[in-house]
Design a protein that fits this description.
With about 475 residues, this protein is of the alpha/beta class. The chain has three domains: about 15-80, Winged helix-like DNA-binding domain superfamily/Winged helix DNA-binding domain (Arc Repressor Mutant, subunit A); about 95-120 and about 375-470, Alpha-Beta Complex (Aspartate Aminotransferase, domain 1), CATH 3.90.1150.10; about 125-365, Aspartate Aminotransferase, domain 2 (3-Layer(aba) Sandwich), CATH 3.40.640. Helix content is about 40%, strand content about 15%. It has helices at about 15-30, 40-50, 50-65, 125-140, 155-165, 180-190, 205-215, 230-240, 265-275, 335-345, 350-360, 365-390, 415-425, 455-470, and strands at about 70, 75-80, 110, 175-180, 200-205, 220-225, 230, 245-250, 280-285, 310-315, 325-330, 395, 405-410, 425-430, 430, 445-450. An eight-stranded mixed beta sheet has the order 4-11-10-9-8-5-6-7, sandwiched between helices. A four-stranded antiparallel beta sheet has the order 12-13-16-15, with helices on one face. Strands 1-2 form a two-stranded antiparallel sheet.
């Protein structure tokens, strides 16, 4: 491609800046359309008779302005209109809301709406002690040995049957046990994503996933969410523009919004994935915690073409410190996933896998989930009532499931300012800036009821509402 660029070395203006300005103008006036490929550094430097460093400097400035992007092994391209959906690589990454204050430790005197880790009081130590003793009696020291990288075979068999309860047909060979959902995301990022390739993420989303994809040099594209998932026309437009290799999604009780994809949108995602040859990494964040009688199936249950990698963590329904999750991985990418898993940590704890296996086989996990569903549904209803009654001018989506409420703050109240004021009163929540890439996050907070009882829920909401009123005046 010839751009008809001209460099005037007789003027004081730096050559790289002249080059930057001319290409920038071509993009701004539409002479260079979206996804147009720019000349390579070598070709352009030779054509203009300038040093390759000059071209690199100009391209770096254009990339910083979000006008171009690079695909490893392919070249440099113009970002299409709508390319502002690329996430800013400078965004700070926090894996948990509490990491906003890295030098601060919250004590028991705090009312904590920031964590979605369940209240420890909800777990039976008696059951755990019984199962652990049973494992040690049966397996002895073998329980502490390395397992196969894919996971403990009896557990993989049990997980195959467990997944069937969610409409997922798979074999034990499809099941990979991993050390928590974060490791699962990281494994898929390593296995499937190359530097410069596009990965779709929901907006807002979990920033730990963003960190994993950014570590691979991915270009992240935000997909705006509605209450029932992405807009179909918008998703179709974005897929055609950016041609993703992966879409990271939480379709049931999304974190942080609580959104639930409609069945129609779940199936449409699969149609697009097949047509445009990309994968969906489905993070079943809290699909077990449905407080209605309706049946919500994961996207994987509708997948007839191996487009979906299903990821399920047990941290919200079992003991979070166990760090156990599993993936259902399509056969054609199984080897890549296995290699990435070995590169991450070789093997997941054999003792913990054996304990979880017993929990599933003995029906204790199913019984425990039923108990959690009942307990959390009460807390959910109380938090909804509290926000509606106390937080004047706020609005919220009522997901009827999951562990969080996504709340739009009253006009004039910024989430970070409210966070700082409430922290002084020993109440914490998750500012919306944790989940967004820009100032939109200042209008929202995420409140989890996982670790707070009913009394603390009402006390905490009362304090938040008082501080919000002070910021409004």
């Amino acid at each position: 491609m010839s751009l008809n660029l001209k460099i005037d070395k007789s003027i004081d203006e730096a050559v790289y800046f002249q080059l930057y300005q001319q290409i920038r103008e071509l993009i701004k006036n539409g002479a260079l359309e979206g996804d147009s490929k720019l000349p390579s550094i070598r070709v352009l430097s030779k054509e203009l008779g300038v040093n390759s460093v000059t071209v690199v400097s100009a391209y770096n400035m254009l990339e910083k302005d979000k006008l171009i992007y690079k695909r490893e092994g392919s070249g440099t391209y113009v970002i299409p209109k709508g390319g502002d959906l690329f996430l800013n690589s400078e965004q700070p990454i926090y894996f948990e809301p509490g990491e906003l204050d890295t030098d601060f430790e919250y004590g028991d005197e705090y009312i904590d709406f920031s964590t979605s880790a369940p209240d420890p009081i909800l777990f039976s130590i008696k059951d755990f002690r019984h199962i652990m003793n049973e494992v040690l009696e049966e397996d002895g020291a073998k329980a502490f040995m390395y397992q196969r990288s894919m996971g403990y075979t009896p557990l993989r068999n049990a997980l195959k049957d467990y997944a069937k309860g969610y409409g997922i047909d798979c074999t034990p060979d499809d099941v990979y046990v991993v050390s928590g959902a974060q490791q699962g995301i990281d494994i898929i990022a390593k296995a499937l994503v190359k530097s410069g390739e596009c990965v779709f993420v929901e907006s807002p989303t979990y920033s730990g996933a963003l960190a994993a994809f950014k570590s691979r040099g991915a270009k992240l594209v935000e997909v705006p969410l509605q209450e029932d998932g992405p807009g179909i026309k918008e998703l179709d437009r974005l897929v055609k523009l950016f041609k993703p290799v992966l879409f990271y999604a939480m379709p049931n009780f999304h974190n942080p919004t609580g959104s639930i994809y409609s069945e129609r949108k779940k199936k449409y995602m699969l149609l697009l994935a097949k047509k445009y040859d990309f994968r969906i990494l489905e993070d079943d964040y809290s699909g077990d915690l449905n407080y209605t009688d309706s049946k919500l199936l994961p996207v994987k249950a509708y997948d007839n073409n191996d487009r979906v990698i299903y990821l399920k963590s047990f941290s919200k329904i079992f003991m979070p410190g166990f760090r156990l999750a599993y993936m259902v991985v399509p056969e054609d990418i199984r080897k890549k996933a296995a290699d990435a898993k070995i590169a991450s940590d070789i093997s997941t704890s054999g003792l913990m896998q054996r304990i979880l296996c017993k929990y599933i086989e003995n029906g204790i996990l199913e019984k425990h989930i039923t108990y959690l569903r009942k307990e959390f549904s009460i807390r959910y209803l109380e938090m909804v009532r509290g926000v509606k009654k106390c937080l004047r001018g706020a609005s919220l989506f009522e997901p009827k499931g999951g562990l969080n409420l996504w709340i739009k703050l009253p006009e004039g109240v910024a989430s970070l300012k409210l966070y700082e004021r409430c922290k002084e009163k020993k109440v914490i929540f998750s500012p919306g800036t944790f989940y967004y890439n820009d100032e939109r996050g200042q209008s929202y907070i995420r409140m989890s009821f996982a670790a707070t009882d009913i009394e603390k829920i009402w006390t905490g909401i009362s304090i938040i509402s008082l501080e919000a009123e002070k910021l409004r005046t």
